[in-house]
Amino acid sequence: MNEKARPEVRTGSPVTLMLALVTLLLIVCGAGVTIVAKWWTEQPTADSLHAAAMHYPEDIPKLMTMGHRVDALDKQGRTPLFLAAVFGKGKSVKPLLDAGADANLPGPDGRTPLIAATFPTKCGANESMIHELLEAGADPSITESTNEKYSPLHHAVWGNSLVVVEDLIAHGADLESRDSHNWTPLHLATQFESTSVDIVRALVDAGADLEARGHDGNTPLHYAVSSHAHDKIEHLLKAGASRTAANEYGMLPIDQHQGDERSKSLFEEIPAPE
């Protein structure tokens, strides 16, 4: 067995005991020597700081005094901070940042800790972690290197987290960042039924472009009307969104109502700005 493949741990530490227990359980459950060996070789090769970030945040300060590198990479190219962000280990983030962890160092998939923390399904649960990353200098406007090209603000809109949206805006997030569909965060907010009008309001109040053109030349108002999002239509109209902006097919926002009379009537009830 390749001893270098094991994490650097100290006898009697919680990490040592945890790894020993997992090994014993694998053997008892009939996993066999091959699987046990495979499990060991797939563990982080850097040091026990990765294991502490995942399971023992209280040990992080002590490990740092023992010479562990805060941005050391494991076998998969992940820092302890990246692991903590990916797996929602909020209690590990602050001690790692306090020890000097780079908040913008990406993981092997190109995502930064902030991109990982704002992933839509996790965003609401990671509000404190996200704030700590932003306070430590995490870039609020960076976009994914994946096909979707989402920014943290796109993620927060999709995840319907007003707290994170406002936090990102307060830290200078780019309101006009574009994803792979040429959509800004406001485009997403106006077409996703799960995204509240409060997020639309926060983006508009912060200065998001009401006339930004997305896929097929649609504006946020086009998307709100096609989604029959009455509260969002009302807010955009009152904010002064253009009623005469035609998309690439010559369709005005009102033309997108698809038989929804309430969407159509809002254009009549709310006077156009003079």
SSE blueprint:
Blueprint: H1 14-28, H2 32-41, H3 49-55, H4 60-65, H5 80-86, H6 90-98, H7 113-117, H8 127-135, H9 152-158, H10 162-170, H11 185-191, H12 197-205, H13 220-226, H14 230-238, H15 261-269
Helix pairs in contact: 3-5, 5-6, 6-8, 8-10, 9-10, 9-11, 10-12, 11-12, 11-13, 12-14, 13-14, 14-15
Poorly predicted parts? 1-12, 31-45
Radius of gyration of CA atoms, rounded to a whole number: 24 Å
Which range best describes the helical content: under 10%, 10-25%, 25-40%, 40-55%, 55-70% or over 70%?
40-55%
Any guess at the CATH architecture of one domain?
Answer: Alpha Horseshoe
Mean pLDDT level: 87
Number of helices: 15
Biggest sheet statistics: none
Helix/strand structural class? mainly alpha
Task: Specify the CATH class of one domain.
Answer: Mainly Alpha
- End-to-end Cα distance: 78 Å
Name given to the CATH homologous superfamily of one domain: Ankyrin repeat-containing domain
Detailed description of the structure:
The protein has 15 helices and no strands. The longest helix has 15 residues, at 14-28. Among the domains are: 1-73, no CATH class; 181-274, Ankyrin repeat-containing domain (Serine Threonine Protein Phosphatase 5, Tetratricopeptide repeat, Alpha Horseshoe). α6 runs parallel beside α8, α8 packs parallel to α10 (162-170) and α10 runs parallel beside α12 (197-205). It has helices spanning 14-28, 32-41, 49-55, 60-65, 80-86, 90-98, 113-117, 127-135, 152-158, 162-170, 185-191, 197-205, 220-226, 230-238, 261-269. The protein is 46% helix and 0% strand. Residues 1-12 and 31-45 have low confidence and may be disordered.
